[in-house]
Design a protein that fits this description.
alpha+beta, OB fold (Dihydrolipoamide Acetyltransferase, E2P), Hypothetical protein af1432, 5-stranded mixed barrel, 11 helices, 9 strands, elongated
Length: 317
Amino acid sequence: MTEHISVAELHQKVNQEISGLYLVAEKELREGKNDFYLRLKLQDKTGTISANVWKDAARHSDEFDAGDIISIQGTVVNYKGQVQLSIAKLRFADKSEYNLDDYLTRSKIEPEVLGDRFFEFVDKVQQPYLNKLLHLIFEDKEFFNKFLRAPAAKSWHHNYINGLIEHTVAVAALCEFASTLYPVDYDILISGALLHDVAKVQEYANLGNIDFTDAGRLIGHLALSDQMVCENASKIPGFPEELLLNLRHLILSHHGEYEKASVRLPQTLEAIVLHHCDNLDAQAKGVAQIIEAAPPFAVWTEYDKLNNRYYKIYRPV
């Protein structure tokens, strides 16, 4: 057996036995042709990999949960062009055996760079009430540190530390470009871009694996973001009612469709632009993450779930 091999290096170990500690990002007990098997997604800070437990799967499933670190012994296999782990032995790992930060994925962009880019957009907003609102919310150092660290999603896109601010900066950049093409109100569009997901800080708990908080499940980030904006706007004397109404509409409609949990459909030009910029970044980044997770030699990625469809992504090499 070898020492712990990072996920990024596992494609170099095909047909070799390995051992190591990995974080369980996902866990699913599935029924096969003859018996149950355990399907896992394991990760460390370098990436994720699929793994299967074929023997005593039901028993092993009771020994750990998603978010736990497990010690495994197994073989790296190439199944239809995809590198996977076939696990022979596993056990729950004690907290004394690892540093959790070694298993949490992060944005490839340094958080200081993301923070600087974010506040560049804040400072571009000239409308005095919107500028005051943005500074009031994001100059709270305790809150901004949480915002800076938060993920943007549980699974599909930007689902890692610093993912929320990376996504927010990207959406603001797309909206800024769109403002050169369409007759939008720049200040309200950029303010909506910076605030549209602000309450994902409350929606997700990131204690190993990303999962919803109770407030995230029961209320959701659209309503929570709207509440946060209203509460802070009420602290600014004379904040115009019409301005707040338009800003709230951008937040409450940015998912674009009722089927995707949008509170309202976009009904202003700014709301329509924000919805499509948000969706463009989310979908493009989600596909980019699938491609990045594929082995270097793979032309097709592993099957992944996107918009309730299972398909592969083609990647010329």
